[in-house]
Amino acid sequence: MAASAPKVVIVGTGFGGLEAAKALRRAAADVTVIDRHNHHCFQPLLYQVATAALSPADVAWPIRHILRDQTNATVLMEEVVGVDAEHRRVRTTMGEIAYDYLVLATGATHSYFGHDEWAAVAPGLKRIEDATRIRRSILIAFERAEATADIVEQGRLLTFVIVGGGATGVELAGAIADIARQTLAADFRRIDPRAARIVLLEAGPRLLPAFPPDLSDYVRTTLANAGVDVRTGTMVTSCDKGGVDTSAGRIEADTVIWAAGVVASATAQWLGAAADRAGRVKVESDLSLPGRPEIFVIGDTAAVFYGDGRPVPGIAPAAKQMGKYVGQRIAARIAGQADDRPFRYRHLGDLATIGRRAAVVSFGRLHLKGFIGWVFWSVAHIYFLIGLRYRFLVAFNWFWDYLTFQRGARLITETEPPRKTG
Amino acid sequence: MAASAPKVVIVGTGFGGLEAAKALRRAAADVTVIDRHNHHCFQPLLYQVATAALSPADVAWPIRHILRDQTNATVLMEEVVGVDAEHRRVRTTMGEIAYDYLVLATGATHSYFGHDEWAAVAPGLKRIEDATRIRRSILIAFERAEATADIVEQGRLLTFVIVGGGATGVELAGAIADIARQTLAADFRRIDPRAARIVLLEAGPRLLPAFPPDLSDYVRTTLANAGVDVRTGTMVTSCDKGGVDTSAGRIEADTVIWAAGVVASATAQWLGAAADRAGRVKVESDLSLPGRPEIFVIGDTAAVFYGDGRPVPGIAPAAKQMGKYVGQRIAARIAGQADDRPFRYRHLGDLATIGRRAAVVSFGRLHLKGFIGWVFWSVAHIYFLIGLRYRFLVAFNWFWDYLTFQRGARLITETEPPRKTG
């Protein structure tokens, strides 16, 4: 690489950032990829880490290993704290990094709708650490219930509330029901894990609003048959250590999981740019920042629209399409080629799983549900995992769990043992 | 189980405690197994978690799952804080638990020879959390070296010191050499991971003192060929954030791992019992506490001797033999059978691996080394894993790593990104 090659800096290595880096692999560019973490997290399967079916390392892979053969890319594990757009520099906790082109792909995090204090009692699911925290919380609740003689406290410990009826909420509720009804059924002596209460709260009128109504109905029925108490039209008004208050009364619960909303990362503040209500940066039709054609914002931290003006959804295929588009666009500009195609999002479809042997798939006119949906979901997810090793390991774990009803990663780590609470 | 069945309480679920519980499976006893963690940790492979070859869940399995079919056993995740031997009660953070027979199998932890402050900079390797901490420390050192332009600091970051030349120290040194020379070799752009310096310090005259001298020599040569700087006869006199001081001078290092000594758990204090220098409880020939025939102390927290008065080593087979003996003895007493055989330790042999394709095995007159030793070591460890699932997953990971030189669990979690230090 010539020292004078244009410097492309990519911040964030989710689906968008990684795809942008890969699209630059043949460009005469000096690509620097920066992330706070050393790993790319395959978020669509993160709920399986949170519910002890997979290990963190099954769904998170070292970024520098993914890019090891792309010799024009350097990976740095640093935290970005700001952008000096005037002097074209990214500020990190280690210093400053100059760029000619900048791609910001820093994603989104949970939104507690102005109640950030709820984060302490109702964790969301975005990172590996969130997943192990939720796993710990679920498994510890059963352990504490077995250790206490107080039956009121047992009931509270065995109540699990999931806030938000989108794909993550549905997947978590289904998986926790599987844990209680099947995985742990024979493992306790004093409590019956099958008596656990799993409550799924959704403020809107139906689950999975992105899906067609018939699939929403199917999901609701399937979850109800698995023992999940589904409550649509129910808003959470407050969360505390003992449970949640909702528009339809209080629920005493030890475990509350937040799957209700997201807010964009701090990109808009770094840039001093205009943002929408969810904090997403308003971008041009080529995903560049207005007035700064060398800065691109992609993925969950960008406000992008398609078709009749609907927002591009915050899902992996959308981020990948944006990453690929921007990477190719920068490569073309470096090569001196004119390319003025705007970004066009192509919605492939939606998938969600509902525990063992059931999933819903909506790909245009193709609607699948039940076992056939689950097979489609499984094959699609295995296919998108990176590398043969992980495809094999994840497939083996699913196959084994399917046969045995077990879950291989039921580990409680980094915690204090339970203490008497009352 | 009749309510009047004798109560057997087992504290600790390492190899000893678990084996004691299993030996009681047909006894007319009410067995309660207590541990601070929800999992049994397969310590012989913990160094592979610390060096990113296996995931925590590959070597740690839920205790209650292992004992799920043993209906006379109840598993409680609680922390024991004392024993009231007079009233036959165990005190935990949740309350008190009565016993008729008590088995204390609480193991050992690292000993810093009176310098507990070194623990903060030189972690040891006993629990899952220790392993993920060491993994993080090793991987972060390479990341920080890539991110800094200061070549002195790079040298310090890429120096790894392992204190103690027993099996754990040798295994860690070999594995870190593999990571630096092979796994990471092509993953960085600014540093050459192969330039990493791995120093193995041993105060005594040779590595692996439990093995025959010819195998010690072989291990030393093999490690030296892998690029490990082996220094026998070298004592650590001080540890700090910047490195270690030794009897032969200072070594600047970012990562220092402690594999030099162990001290028994607090069992002797709980009992007010006589202990040896390492804190191990002095027991009768049947492993019971002098004057308390209903209390047994086993595994690394007991001082037991064999043959010509040598101490029983702190290895898994020894703990398992003690656990089985005590479980059977209690079962016999409950059944009203006389059984006065004293405990007799049978030393099967010693094994240690030295990274890829090399291990040493000493089983009586059978001495194996090199590739054939490594095959023997691998088969033996796979065999002793619990359950087909884990045997398969560990074997697959080893096979894959063997073919590709990769390591599947290179995750840095629960950490802050690097910050500028100087």
Low-pLDDT regions of chain A: none
Give the strand tally of chain A: 27
Query: What's the CATH C level of the domain at 116-260 in chain A?
Result: Alpha Beta
* Most extensive interface between two protein chains, with residue counts: A-B, 61 and 62 residues
Strand content of chain A: 25-35%
Distance between the termini of chain A: 65 Å
Provide mean pLDDT of chain A, rounded: 92
- Helix percentage range of chain A: 25-40%
In the sheet with the most strands of chain A, the strands line up as: 5-2-1-9-21-20
The quaternary structure here is homodimer
Query: What does the main sheet of chain A amount to?
Result: 6 strands, mixed
Number of helices of chain A: 11
Radius of gyration of chain A: 22 Å
**Based on helices, strands and strand pairing, what is the structural class of chain A?**
alpha/beta
Principal-axes shape call of chain A = globular
Can you tell me the CATH topology of the domain at 116-260 in chain A?
Answer: FAD/NAD(P)-binding domain
What is the CATH architecture term of the domain at 116-260 in chain A?
A: 3-Layer(bba) Sandwich
